[in-house]
Amino acid sequence: MITIKNLHASIGDKEILKGINLEIKAGEIHAIMGPNGSGKSTLASVLAGREDYEVTQGEVIFNGKNLLDLAAEDRAREGLFLAFQYPVEIPGVSNINFLKTALNEIRAYHGQEEMPAKDFLALVKEKQKLVELDGKLTNRSVNEGFSGGEKKRNEIFQMAMLNPKLAVLDETDSGLDIDALRIVATGVNALKSKDNAFVVITHYQRLLDYIVPDFVHILYNGKIVRSGGKELALELEAKGYDEIKKQFESLEK
Amino acid sequence: MIAEKSNTAQLIIDKISSTAEKVDFIDNDRLSKALLYLENKGIPNNKHEDYKYCNIDGIFKKEFKNIEQKLNVVSDVAQYKLKDALTLVVVNGNYSESLSDKLILKGLHLTAFSNLDKEEKKLIGSLANVESDAFIALNTAFSGAGFHLKIEDNEQLQMPIHILYVSSANSEALVNPRNVIELGKNAEATIIEEQICIGTGKVFTNFLSEKFVGENAKLTSYTFQNEGANGFSVNTNQVTINRYGKYDNTTVTLSGSLVRNNHNVVLAAQNCEAHLNGLFTTKNNQLVDNHTLMDHQMPNCESNELYKGIINDKSTGVFNGKIYVRKDAQKTNAYQSSKNILLSDDATINTKPQLEIYADDVKCSHGTSTGKIDEVAVFYLNARGIGRESAKKLLLNAFAQEVINKIEVDELKDKILNLFENEL
Q1: Contact B380/A93, CB-based, under 8 Å?
Q2: Same domain, B267 and B352
Q3: What is the ipTM of this complex?
Q4: Residue B374 to chain A, least CA–CA distance (Å)
Q5: Is residue B111 predicted with pLDDT exceeding 90?
Q6: Is B281 exposed, middle or buried (0-12, 13-18, 19+ CB in 10 A)?
């Protein structure tokens, strides 16, 4: 589905990603863990096409296309979805209008006609049930006045509506209470299929109790320093990042 | 500052005098004052404090070198009509009975200025002082025609009135439409004033309206300006509100090479209320200048202003909002807000709140903000598959909603929304 090769990215003069290699196949769930400042969110942003970052080396092939050549909207239209760590409030744009525009632009990109209003509303109803999102919220402005948990659930709701091939969840668990966490995880698990894939970026093992990853990668100082199965997350939870840091630092020397 | 005057006013007078109709509804004393004022002060240029960003003298010199007054006859305005409103049509300043709907609304009277009795004629010019502004003087001297619209005491009009001002010429021209709108005691009306410019010639429309809101009356007024590249206009609204009266205006300006709005509201008695809302979008080399004045003369009144501008290309937007709270106007509540988005590096907005407060027990506030389109929001939309252009449209639409939502006539609101989206 996606192949990331030797990806380097900087913001200003500061190099943040220092050679990421990652291969994700359809049907897989990958977790990316790592301490603060290791580059997790940068990786998510670079994949989604945020222009603040400059890719200095490497390539990313997404479903046979060179992802880095595509504008952010085309990456989304190709089936990439980023659940934002900090979802943006957009006063005056209703959630519904926003989603309708998004869905129809994606359809137009694939040469499909606009979705009939009736089907669209049925889809909204079905998907908002999945994330237990209050119907009132879908009629409000995008994320405006939403609580932290509502914002995150709204991300998962959007993901459910747009049905991406690859979803990158950037610390979707941060700021969530245990109930919201369960709802988000239920949503992800319901959407999971053999045709799509997920990258779950998180600090904590907790989310991975609900969304069970096939692979866990540890990102440190802009590189993936270890990869393993789901047990790696448990090990991290028990030992913390200090050991990783020490190992890595001694390696550097 | 003393405004340097040029001979533009005299040139205009020379060019339009021969074709101008005689103004028989304004007394000679006032007519000569108007001409004298024009002669002395001239057409304002940017050295004139009130026209600092709106050099109309310069625009006249550049765009109206050759005023020939080849005015067109207009025979069809069907496409501009609203279904659920009573349409009145004014072509180049003259009321057109044949293009207008029949005046079937109970309590509504329309009278040409010439047919008013002596007492009623005194209303004309009683609010707009010929010695306060060159365009009031110019209109007074050359309006030629005009009408008085009266809504009787205690009458609530059953449907909105849509006054369509059409300017149309095949040469450079200057027209001076004028009206007086009077709401009697307890009367209620919704009046839409739409300004368009059709025809091949550039037309300078110098519009003047005097509006009287009677005791406990309510006037909901919409000004919709979409004159296109050939349209140049100065629009003066001089409003006075009586006890417990309410005046609401929403002005939407979508096009026009030059649009200068002077919207002056006098809260002349206790317990009255005024709201002025504005939305303007400008592009190319357009200049849209909104000057408002809220003149609080008496206690316990409230006023509110919200103006929003979207400025693109090399165009210029201006908002100058003056709130005047006189000595007697205790317990005044007056608020003002101006928000703007600049879409290009060459676009300019000049925004200036002016508060002059002479009473000590008042609540007044003003705020202004100018920014670019929110790139963080654009990226969020992009990340959902929404292209840059659509994202921009969604965000600008959201920005404009606050003003567009003030429009309570659905048909007008939809029409404006559609045209607004096309302008983006």
Answers
A1: no
A2: yes
A3: 0.95
A4: 9
A5: yes
A6: buried
